[in-house]
Amino acid sequence: MKKATLFFFTIFLSCSVYAQSLVADNSGSGTDYSAAESRKAFKEYSALLAANPKDAITYSKRAEVNLELKKYREAIADYDLAIKYNPADVDSYYNRGLTKIVTGDFTGALADMSKVIKIKPQNTDAYFNRALAQLNMYHSQAAIQDFTTVLKLDENYMEAYYYRGLMKHEIKDNKGACHDWQKAAAFDKRAGNMLKKHCK
């Protein structure tokens, strides 16, 4: 039991770091803002919202600033309002889901990614991140299913091979795990390490 708990804790750390990198990639326009610039932008967006408290786009933009400042719960609150005033805002569902993975709200992340998938059933990233949420909820088979869907849509999605391999290893499908890590080993050092450690 302790071994399994340690295994999932290690995966949780890996997923959290990966999700934070995705959050960083998806926040803002790709520009690196200083903390001072981010705080200034936050004040500007807050002033706009004071004048127009139902502006979904501005809530979404302020959420991105909160992500720059690593204020994840505040970002989620802004995405909540962005979605409230524009329920069709798929990007806010997706970014809120990523942020929930970072904060450990895997049930919420699963719900958000499922919403994105319902609207955009070919969105590989949504399937992948829903799988990360499933993984951290100990839903190994459901995670494997989502990782498999990712790879059906994009056979070159190497992260999916690595994590699906971890899940297969957890359910004692060592042959399947080794096959997945073999696929990813040339592109992912972690997969290569798992291959050396667990596969002959």
What's the arrangement of secondary structure elements?
Elements: H1 2-26, H2 35-51, H3 56-68, H4 72-85, H5 90-103, H6 106-119, H7 124-136, H8 140-153, H9 158-170, H10 174-184, H11 189-198
Helix pairs in contact: 1-5, 1-7, 2-3, 3-4, 4-5, 5-6, 5-7, 6-7, 7-8, 8-9, 9-10, 10-11
Task: Write a brief caption for the model.
The chain has 200 residues and is mainly alpha-helical. It is built from eleven helices and no strands.
Q: In the CATH hierarchy, what is the superfamily?
A: Tetratricopeptide repeat domain
Which stretches of 5+ consecutive residues score pLDDT under 50? 1-10
Mean pLDDT: 89
Estimated radius of gyration? 18 Å
> What is the third-level CATH name, the topology?
Serine Threonine Protein Phosphatase 5, Tetratricopeptide repeat
Write the element-wise H/E pattern from the N-terminal end onward.
Answer: HHHHHHHHHHH
Total number of distinct structural domains: 1
Per the principal axes of the C-alpha atoms, what is the gross shape? elongated
Report the biggest beta sheet as strand number plus sense, adding barrel if it closes.
Answer: none
Instruction: Report the total helices.
Output: 11
**Share of helix among residues?**
over 70%
Task: Give the amount of beta strand, in percent.
Answer: under 5%
